[in-house]
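User: Some background: our group keeps a shared notebook of sequences we're curious about, and every so often someone picks one and asks for a predicted structure to add to the entry. Today it's my turn. The entry only has the sequence so far, pasted here. Could you supply the structure so I can complete it?
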Amino acid sequence: LSDGREYRDTREFKQLLLKDMDAFQMTFLEKLATFGMRRTMGFADREELKKIATASKAGDYRLRDLIECFVCSDLFKSR
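Assistant: Of course. Here's the predicted structure to add to the notebook entry:
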C-alpha cells in the first residue's frame, strides 16, 4: 500500500481495509457524493460529509445506510 504496509492475499488485504474502515468509508462517501452531486466535493462540503459518515457509521458501515444518509442529507437535498 502507499503507506508501506504489505499484504500477501485477499484475506490480508481485507483485514487492512477493516482496520481503516473510517477512512475507507469517508473516501467511498466522497466518491458517491461527487457522482450524486455531479460536482467535485470541496472544503465547504467537508462538514456535511462528516455528518453523513457519522450517521451511517451507526448502521455498522452498511452500504444501504450510507446511501440513505447521503440521499436524506441537506447536501443532497440542496443540489
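Suggested note for the entry: DSSP finds five helices and no strands in the chain. Helices lie at 10-19, 21-37, 46-57, 63-71, 74-77.
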